[in-house]
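Researcher: Please generate the 3D structure of the following complex. Treat every line as part of one assembly.
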Amino acid sequence: MKFIKAPKKFYFHYPFPVTVVVSKFEDKVNMMSAVWHTQLSFDPPLYGVLISRKRFSHSLIEKSKQFTLNFLDYEFLETVAFVGSVSGRELDKAEVFDIPLKDGRIIDVPILSESYAAYECELYDEREYGDHTLFVGKIVGVHYSEDAYYGEKFIPDVYKIRPVLYIGDEKFLTTDPSTEKKYGKKEAEEYLRNWG
Amino acid sequence: MKFIKAPKKFYFHYPFPVTVVVSKFEDKVNMMSAVWHTQLSFDPPLYGVLISRKRFSHSLIEKSKQFTLNFLDYEFLETVAFVGSVSGRELDKAEVFDIPLKDGRIIDVPILSESYAAYECELYDEREYGDHTLFVGKIVGVHYSEDAYYGEKFIPDVYKIRPVLYIGDEKFLTTDPSTEKKYGKKEAEEYLRNWG
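Model: Done. Output below.
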C-alpha cells in the first residue's frame, strides 16, 4: 500500500453509480449526470446530490426548489454519458439527444421515461461543502419498473437492473449479476458459534 | 412504470458500493459497513457518510472526531458483510473476524490492511438528516494499492478493483470488467456534429 496526503483529483473509491438529475424552471428543462449522491434518511425519505455551483442545473434547482433523480440501465449509457458531457445553457439536451421525458406526478419537473427508477424530490435543505452544493431532496414520489423489483422493500433483481457505474476518465461499466451472493446475519451468527 | 408515494423502506437506486467505517476512541476500535456515503468536494477533499444514531460507531466518532473509510475487493466480501451484521458493543470485531488492521498515518484510527483504498478523515461537519447523521470527513491521507490505479488522477483499473456492491436483503454483487466503455466529450461532440 502506498500513502499520499490528500491529492487534488482522485477516484480511489470509484466505480460509483450515476444518477441523472433533471431540473426545470419556467419552460427550461435541463439534465446532468452526477456521481456524488447518497440516500440520507428513510424517515423522512431524504436523498442528497452534490452539484457544482458552475453547473446550469444548480441555478435551475435554486430557483424551482425541485428536481428528479433518474437511474438508467447500462443499455442507456449513451444518454447518461452525453448529458454529463455538455452544458444545457446553450442547447436543449432532451431534444438534441432525443431523450423521452414524462411529467412528474407530484412536482413540476419531468423524469426520464427510460429510467428503471426515478425519485421526485422537493428541496429540503441546501448546504455548501467546498466546491459543491449538497442539495437534499425529500422524496415525494417514486416511479419504477415493476418487474425489476421484488418484495415489500423493493429489492432490485440484479438480472433486470444493470446500473451505469462511473470509473473516472469518461469510462463506465456495469455489474455482473452472476456474482450475486447472500451474506448476512445468519452467516455471521454461524461464524460466531464456530468461533466461540 | 408504476408510481408510489414515498414508501417506508426502499432499494430502488441500489446496488450501491459499500465502505467500511472504522472508528476508535481510547482503546476501543470498531468497524461497520455503510452503503450511504458520497464524496462532497474536491477542494477541500470532503467525504460524507451516514450513520444511524443507534450504532456504536456513531458514539465513537462523536467522541474522537475521526474515522477511516475503507474500500475492499469483492474477495473480502465476508469481512464487509460480517462487520455490517453484528454490533461492536459486545465484541471486538477485528479479533473475532480476524481482520488485519494497520495504524493510520495522520490520525489515531486504524485502516483495514486488506483495503485497495482507505481514507483517513478528520471530522469537518456533522448534520442530522431524519434518522441518520451525516458525518463529513476531511480526507487528510489516502492509502491505496499502487498497481490498481493509473494516471495523475488515480483512475481505477477495473480488472484489479472489483468493489463490493450492496443490493439490499443481505445480498451483494460486483462489477463486470468486460463491460468497460469510454463515452465522453469526444463522442458527444461527434454526435452533435452529425445532429446539426
